Amino acid sequence: MARYGWWLSAALIVLNLSLAPIPGVETDIWWHLAAGQRFWQHGLELTDPYSFTEAGQPWVRIDWLFQALLYPIYQRGGLPALIWLRSASLLSGAALVAFLLRRRAPAESWLLIMLVATIWSYSISLRPAAASLLLTALWVTLLELSRQGKQRWLWVLPPLMCFWFNLHVAGLAGILLLGLYALGHTLERARERLKPDWIWWKVLVLSFLATFLNPQGWKTVYYPIHFLFVRSPWRDIILEVQPPQWSTPGTWQARLLLALSLVGAAQAWKRREITPLLVTLVSGYLMNSAIRHEYQLCVALVPWAALTLPGALRWLCALPAVLLAVQALASLLILRLPVAGLVRRESFSERLATLTAQAPDGLRVFVDMNTAGYFLHRFEGRQKVFLDTRTDQVYLLPSLLPDHQEIWTGGERALQLLDQYQVQAVVNNRLTSEGSPLWVKLRGSSDWTCVLSDMVGELYVRRELADQFQEPPLPAYLRDYLKAFPLEAEGRIYEAEAAWLESLKDYPQFALAHQWLGKLWTAQGKRDQARRALARAEAYHAATPGLEEDWKRLGITYPRWLRSFFLPFWAR
């Protein structure tokens, strides 16, 4: 298998992994778009324009450059443009990994690229972290070139750090890696009784100082460090800063890469190289302390990862390379297009946000943190939310979080706190809040009334404000989808089938409609059609409830990991 064949295989697989469906409930992308929109409308604001609990208080602009660059792209190309941008970032990152491994045998390089890409694939949401994956790969590449004697590349690091840190605070990891390389270089020189090359330390100081070149100076540097090292209620609820478990997506791959890196670092130690062991030990410790570090620092372990295959095994690796490349190509052509359909519209609070955004300016809205980003984007600063998670609230007011959680989970003081904070509207997003006792309490309260309820969620408002809300129409795909259920209940099966098919004309990648068609065709004995529909349902949203039972009813009992390989072929 020619070298270019390995790279083509890797590119197809990474591209397919990167074009994953985007859940609409993801708060970060909408929050960043809202902030980017305000940047272009009002300039660089340093006080909170979004919340009513901290209105006018300092606003920590840790990702301001990402937001400023992102919004014009969204304006011109919408979410599809952002999806392609994210894919380009991950493909470029994978290309840099390939460059780091350029002296390895193609099969070994391919396996390590796949290992890193698989870890990355669990952190490919549309947010600054995706850019940091690419920039970490670039940073490690420059460090490795410098370690190999091309030290002129070190002078690229300070300006790159200035750009990176304003894009995403994870740039601080670059400072750590540079410090480890500088220390390793100095110890290696001392071991040989040579004078250290001070360029490493000069560049380290300049790169660290470059982080202070941001709109808020020392605060922007201090707050993320404080957040990582000081216990607070915030850290207890943010999943990505929790220690990874073996069941955490990407963890076994990260630990396999860490083991390979430890072996390679031990071999380097015998060659009197200290840097690989320093980087591996510190990165390994951090990767086992927080999930987000697994995703970002895995690329730092690649340069010396020990993986040497006998000639026969190298050729044997060609088989999975070809199979996975063919599967990725089929998936791209059959399932991933149009790219606009990869955004899960059914998970949006589209109607809820539209209705709430039509309310009077200054409306005080309680919405959970996982959903708040979309509402902020739709509100454009007119209506206010309880918590936007990006102001000094995160760092200096930890007492606010328990109140948020008490309300969201429907605790004993939930209604009392809604009164205390003078909340005027409460949003129930079923995907994040369903089952909370809060909704039972609101339904039973004489002070609140529900002005909208659909499959996505509910909107409760103060009773005296109810006449200011007018229910918006259902999107066409949702209207046709819901119309099918009473038809099915009445035994009008063919009309129900037609309604579900009609909903797919407006939204071809609607997983729930495909699932119900699969159920219907299974009952009718239309096996091929049912398999096609269920394959599409799983490809577009693997967590669709009830899919495992649907597959069993169809007689397909493959485990999910094996079934996922066949999905694009079944879905054609």
Give a verbal description of the structure.
- Helices cover 61% and strands 5% of the residues.
- It is mostly helical.
- The chain folds into three domains: 268 residues, no CATH class; 123 residues; 95 residues, Serine Threonine Protein Phosphatase 5, Tetratricopeptide repeat (Alpha Horseshoe), CATH 1.25.40.10.
- The strands form two sheets. A five-stranded mixed sheet has the order 4-3-5-7-6, sandwiched between helices.
- Helix 1 crosses helix 14, helix 6 runs parallel beside helix 8 and helix 18 packs across helix 19.
- The longest helix has 37 residues.
Q: Helicity range of the residues? A: 55-70%
Q: Provide the low-confidence segments as ranges.
A: none
- Sheet bearing the most strands, described? 5 strands, mixed
Count of DSSP-assigned helices: 27
Write the topology of this structure.
Layout: H1 3-18, E1 22-23, H2 27-42, H3 64-100, H4 106-120, H5 128-147, H6 157-167, H7 172-191, H8 199-210, H9 218-229, H10 233-237, H11 251-270, H12 275-287, H13 291-297, H14 311-334, E2 343-344, H15 350-357, E3 364-366, H16 369-379, E4 384-385, H17 393-396, H18 400-408, H19 414-420, E5 425-429, H20 430-433, H21 437-443, E6 448-453, E7 457-462, H22 476-489, H23 493-506, H24 511-523, H25 527-540, H26 547-553, H27 560-570
Parallel strand pairs: 1-2, 3-4, 3-5
Antiparallel strand pairs: 5-7, 6-7
Notable traits:
mainly alpha; Serine Threonine Protein Phosphatase 5, Tetratricopeptide repeat; 3 domains; five-stranded mixed sheet; two-stranded parallel sheet; 7 strands; globular
